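Appendix B.2, paired examples.
Example (i):
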Amino acid sequence: MDYQDYYKILGVEKNADEKEIKQAFRKLARIYHPDATGGDKEAETHFKRINEAYEVLSDADKRAKYDQLGSNYQHWQRSGGAAGGYNWGDYNQGYGTNTGGYNADGPDFSEFFSSFFGGGARTREAYNKQPIKGNNIEQPLEITLEEAYRGTERILNRGGKKKTVRIPPGAREGTRVRVSGEGETGFAGGARGDLMLVVQIKPHPVFERQGDDDLSMDLKVGVYTAVLGGEIVVHTLAGDVKVRIPAGTPSGKRIRLANRGMPHLNQPDVKCDLYVRVQVQVPTNLSDEERSLFEQLAALRPDSA
């Protein structure tokens, strides 16, 4: 009689909590459920093992006794002990003893389970009737940076029915928007899964997103404004703003515009910052007079860079 590693069957760690065990069972049940496999015998056998593992690990008392058994049973088997000679009475108190093979529930549960836990288990038919929610479906949704800034809507046409989906302000690359009940059909009367719209942000010709919420952009500044200082109107997603350029501003300098970046996701009234990178524009095609003036300036500061 082989030891049944229920944790391995469900694909969870031994310290998995109740939620993780339930999620693992539902995930596997959707794959191997008779409604999904069309009577495949190998899948049906695996579905029985999944049911058995969940029967034990989802019950706190059964799980505690199973964990207590664990290493003791494997050590006893490695020492050459015969399966029928194991002292189940040390462990199966409260479940009944059935060391002779399968219990009254028939072939839905292994000899290991029957010998250890005895009766009182749910049959496979009970699991077949247990509602299992359908799988979620993921679908990409492309939006512009402007739409991500202010929020937007999309009209979905699913099965002839139109549904309006709201994309929140501050949506980021990878933000998931749940549309309930638009996923795969459930089993045994279970609810449909959900449609998960995965946001993708189109590249913008002006703004770059830094991290999740700050923005940056290049700002062309004339050489005279960079040298003497002045004001330039900057077009931001929040509207136009006048930016003061200090005298002697070098190319590459970053100027921070507070509250002109992206809104926080789920906090649209809280804005991050926009960083402006100064790009000093050197004049070309100088006239003779302009070139003469620049030469005079150069003569006044021969050591300047």
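Example (ii):
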Amino acid sequence: MASGSTSVTGTPSGISGAGVGSSLSVTHAMSGNDQVIMAAQDIAFALNEMGFDTVEKAEDADMVALFSIGTVRYDPLAGWIADRAFLQFKDQRSGSTVLSIKADGQIITPTVGTIVENLIAEVRRYY
């Protein structure tokens, strides 16, 4: 965001001008990668609320949830957005897919938060 003002004055010896300007720059304390990590944590938290247990090591689990999201980028109007995301549940022993969910597409590119909400809503439909 920027603002400024100028003034021009005619004098017998010519024209003199003066100007004053100021600007404001906005930066993000978090990166797109940080947003992806937060989205994964939000999914884990929601799964825990639904009764899923989480373990430290994948080999200790009966099922593994794999989260994948498209490029996360900042939009000045919407905030952090991404085109698509997937959540896939695989049986740890056989490696077979138990459930695969794609976040619903929208006309307007969804925010990362909206994508997480859509994925969790779909899991609730099946769980």
